[in-house]
From TrEMBL:
GO MF annotation terms: DNA binding; DNA-binding transcription factor activity
Name of this chain's protein: MarR family transcriptional regulator
Domain of life according to the entry: Bacteria
PROSITE patterns: HTH_MARR_2
């Protein structure tokens, strides 16, 4: 089957752009979980930081930045706020003082447990079945990973 070639008068519409679908889905997704985050008193980046530390405590600022796709210059002020809130501690690495290690406090661990309902809210709001949701999540993660590689000239 031959590919259809778009002519200037048949340009793609906004709804045809995958980047717009992802962008607008992200904005809408944010509206769904905003009440949960408000109840926890956290922003989304703060919340995912808590989750990342819950999975692996004592990460460096650099490793957290890489894992969360955030710049270290963004992470540092956010971590200072989380520390002021009593959820994390920041300590110099004893082996390499250039590195700062981030750890959850007891309050930070407790906060993470309070956010467990978040997943149920977003799964329900998605309208996807329990089988469809993880399939879509994995496809989006694969897309992200491929885009990261492409942005580094690796694809």
């Amino acid at each position: 089957m031959a590919k259809k070639v778009l002519h200037r008068t048949e340009t793609a519409k906004l709804a045809d752009f995958m980047c717009f679908s992802i962008y607008s889905a992200n904005l809408t997704y944010s509206r769904v979980y905003k009440p949960v985050l408000d109840a926890l008193g956290l922003t989304y980046p703060q919340y995912i930081t808590i989750i990342a530390l819950w999975e692996e405590d004592r990460q460096t600022v650099k490793s957290l930045s890489d894992r969360l796709f955030l710049e270290p210059s963004t992470m540092t002020p956010m971590l200072k706020r989380l520390e002021a809130m009593g959820y994390v501690t920041r300590t110099r690495d004893t082996k390499d003082e250039r590195n700062v290690r981030i750890s959850l406090t007891a309050a930070g661990r407790s906060l993470r447990e309070k956010g467990f309902g978040f997943g149920e809210v977003t799964v329900k709001a998605s309208g996807l079945t329990s089988e469809e949701f993880p399939v879509l999540q994995k496809a989006i993660a694969k897309l992200r990973d491929n885009l990261v590689k492409a942005s580094k000239g690796e694809l």
